[in-house]
Design a protein that fits this description.
This protein is 38% helix and 13% strand. It is α/β, with parallel strands linked by helices. A six-stranded parallel beta sheet has the order 1-14-23-22-15-21. A six-stranded parallel beta sheet has the order 10-9-11-12-8-13, with helices on both faces. A five-stranded antiparallel beta sheet has the order 19-18-17-16-20. α16 crosses α17 and α17 crosses α18. The longest helix is centred in the first third of the chain and has 24 residues. The protein is globular.
Amino acid sequence: MSTEPETTQKAGPGSPDPEVDPATARDPQEGTPGGGRVPGDEAVTGGEAAEGAGTGDDAVPQGEAAEGAGTGSGAGSGAGAADAGAEADSSAETADGSAEAGSGRVFGAGAHDSGEGSEAGVESAGRGAPEAGAEDSAGGSGADAGEGSDAGSGSGADPGAEGADAGSGSGADAGAEGAAGKMSEAEAELAAQRAERERIERRKAEKKGPIESGAKLSGRAADLLAAVRAVESGEKPAAAVFTLPEPEPAQRRAAPEPVRRPGPVTAEAAAVPAAPAPETVQAVRQVLAAGGAPESLALPVATALGEGAADRLRADPWQLLHIAGVRPEQADGFARALLGAESRPDDERRGRAFTVWLLEQAALAGHTSLEAPALTAALAQRGVPDADAALQSALAEGEALVFQDALEESGAPAPAPEADGDEEETGEERPVRVLVGLERYALAEESLADGLARLINSAPGEHGPAEGWEEAAGAARGSAGELIRAVSGHGLVLHTGGEAARAEPARLLAGARALGLRAWAAAHSPLGRDGFTELLRATAAGEGAPDAGRAPQAGGGSAGHAQAGQAGQAGQAGQAGQAGQAGQAGGGVPGGAESHAVATVAGLLSGAEGPGRDADGALDLDLLVVLDAPQLDVETAALLVESLPDGARLVLSGDPAVLWSAGPGRVFADLLAARVCPHIASRLPDPGPLGELVSGIGVGELTQVAAPGKEVVIVPVRDAGEAVHRTVQLVADSVPRAIGVPAEQTVVITPGHGGAAGTRVLNAALKERLNPGPGRFGGFDPGDRIAYSPVPGRTLPGRVVTADAEGLHLSCSGVRVVVPRERVEASVRHGWALTAHQAVGGRWPAAVVVLPGDAAQALSRPWVYTAFSRAGRHLSVVHGVEQALPRAVAEVPARERTTRLPLLLAAQAAQAAQSQERAEA
């Protein structure tokens, strides 16, 4: 590594950002750990937390029933109902700063960038599981059976006199209509009524009289009487008379709609719930005013609580905690203003609301559940007198779920018992771990475990002869061949490795498509999608095969990332960025249209990219390779596995050393630990000094590497102000001049958004140097680099093209996006500087990692590994943390997350083993 001692102007010291500790479930919006601000002191701008801090908001699912009725004379009417429900998770700003909280100002007139703390592993849980269904049916649209027979006779017609009634009715109606042409409207109406009464009286009189045999019969009754008399007289044989005629062929009814899997729902649509009615918002505004809360909360409250939001909020003021950015002490103040003396610390409503709020904060920290003792301790810290009673109340109301997991003596979850009654035979009671979680994450984990068990225990579909798979594996050699062999015989395979190891899934994908499989790959971000597309092209050309013993040129495809994205970012959406639209057309074969075989995970699930879905609602593919698998949260993973058809193969590939997902869960790590399926570890190392440096960090060693080509440069700084100055100097001058990488292909990575050297300060300085302007479009100008977050936890780098009445026009990897003006502030940031979580899944030719002195507490081994590995050709480290950097690499691993997936997978494996034993017996 080399040091670049360039002179700089000394700037004032930066203010440190306190760390937020998710383990204690503190409010990430608070400026200091454990410290609470009194309602009314200042405003909270939700979402401007450091990476690892954020708030969550579970929007209440809303469904509207639309009823339509059709009428028919004689047989009644039908009614159809349409019920559409869409769960929208309007999570606030995630730890990686993907979106600003939309709740507006909270209880005050000041301004405060909340939660500008250090990296704490708190990420948004804001992926709502996409659920949407709507079925409309309208009854009574057609005439009911028998409707026409009484059309002219009115209600109460005798079925036995249909012909006569129809004739008499039509005649009377005709007479009435003729008279109506010569008399007034009132007279015509009276005449019609008289005719109708006369007809009714005449029919009543006819019914009272006796019916002579064979007289006054018509239609089918007369035909039957004639047939009986013919048989009695011997004129016709009974068989000839009573043989039923050939029935007319019945009209074929339309086949019922097959039961479909959950259909695709765009993440953008799921994140934006339907706007509430204006009268609902107005009613909520009045309740907020009565409680001293800002009226700007009216819209988010009405959206979250749905119909009757005002009544619900007045009856339970602590429902305000459903809104992102609202803290428990603020909800307490609101409740006191509304309820007066009735607002007590031991109120059941308060305990339930605090329990749910704490579970939501745990989800932001990555936990799918919390241990009951930890949850009750957190409730006690929040001033709940009887924490156990509050927890039981939340469980009784169904606002949380409880689980009991058996433990081994070591404390790890125990595998499921092999047979019933084992505990009775041993006479020992196993200790249990009691977990409490929100329903949405509990159901997602169980659904994911069931789906994974389906893949593991079922034989994959027969696609191509076995000799073809073996031939492809033999041609690949090494760990790439092992991957192909494992996929040929298993429904679920795990693959781990660094950036160079991506060549192995590329070889697998090319080989599978050559065998006739509908094979697709899905990356976490558009940058990853575009880079893998370039790698597929190289593999088809024989340039990037794993057996070649080398990684893709110039940083593992990072140049392809930058070129494909920068063409669109420069406003030239039709050039190289078009490769970023991979997957919008189906098909594609290796060597011809590789881009058609790669999509993003979000695009695949929404239907915007990928092969589409079959008649059953499953993805229309045989093999799916998911890249960047550590970024799968539990809800996204569950939806992805549920979408796979029976017999499909799934490969989860990724680098286990990078940061975990922004949402709750650690799916990839749990699967690796469970050992329930084949795991292929790549033996292809990342090349060069950068590869050597990153590989050492992965095992906890920060080594000094030789960098003759200035691949790694260390720039020491004394304070945050100097760090900002040197960063701008590196991006705008030093790296383009010395390395040959332009500023457009260089990314700046820093631990958080706040502080004196966070993304906000760095982006302001970089904009002033690289694209100065007045910021006339909400702070943005054409040409600005941006980070667009359509939903919390997902960031799309791009550039501003223009703005008009529709909103801000962006180009993200060649795809044109229009962000409505009301959503610009919440979802668009300047993007020269990103956090590590925003940058994960993409690579750039050059990266500048900024480590100011106030970021020491934010550093961990996964963070350093992720930030340093974003560089393809050159890495500059603006170093101001001294020994905190090697200490973080050696001693600070990833924060643990509490999940239930390992136990669920173990139970599934035990059940499968028992079933196999019984089948063999």
